[in-house]
Amino acid sequence: MPPDLQTPEPYVISLSPSPSLSPSTFEDPYMDANFFFPSVLVARSGFDLATVAIIAALLLLSVVSLSFIFYLRIKSRRMQHLQNFNSLWTIRLLLVTFAFLWAVNEIIRLPNVRRKYLDPFLTLNQQTNLCKFHVVLSFGFYEPGFLITLLFLVNVSIKKKNPCRMWALLCVCMVCSPMTLIQTILVYFSPLETQLPKFVHGSSILTIDFQGNKTVLCTYPFFSCVVFWVFAIVYALAFLFSCWRVLDFVINKSIRVRINMLAAAVMVALPMQILCLGLSWLWIPEDDAYGWVVLVMFFCITSCMAVGEVILIIKPITDALVAGGDCCRRFPGGFRLSRSVEQRERLDNQEPGQ
To answer: Which residue ranges traverse the bilayer (predicted)?
Structure first.
């Protein structure tokens, strides 16, 4: 990498308009650099536009989910039979909130969005801090918070009693806090910063175009990714175990399909995100390959969040409203698990020969 230029970023890159063009092409002072630089922006804009479209779809789905939650909340105040099903409305609200904030955070991170709406009002140091803040929020709070809330809703479906709402919120926040703390330490107080390669702890790079304009682009630090990988592996094992426990009680074919869809969405999204994060270090943020890798990663994560919102929020609320609500405890998919649990407990306690 080129030597440091006394900037707030650990390393600097210069934009290359095309792999087929050598740097010597631009040594001519009379050559118009504006002829080449827009091609870079157009290519980058294509990836950003596709990413915005994907994330916007998630934002729209989150707004719909919020509408369902508040509508059921209002209906449950007048209908007694819906109150038990709506007892964990705060946890469902937290799930949608994490997805919504993650989507907004990722939109702010996009280079063209930042160039147009944020960078003109921020210094280079402020842009660097914004990238650090993004990493902490994305890897340390929003995405882990969504996944932990998702796991909580699956686990609570086979409990005999729904937990207290405040205890449930406290439980989710306590599980999220270690990830947030670790990511904050790694990003803002990187250990052995001077002894390790710069990509290990760097959360952004400084790009200089052919007109001398400087822009800070956000990247994914190696340390932060490794911590998230460990979290993803542990979470995947816990999620599979929880889904297996739920499937052990479920006798309805439709609810089995929903659980399998939810498990598939999570188990595909997390490995793909890990793979894309690993591949992202092979290119700089302005390369087309980097844009494709990030686009695939966003698509996998947003698909997982969308499936979670549909299966755990929209579909069960719709079922509850259509069925009129049952006083029995329900699985987040909208079907009763109480009957199958009671039958299984009766069979376990039954003596042989009865």
So the answer is: 49-72, 93-113, 133-154, 166-189, 220-247, 259-284, 290-314
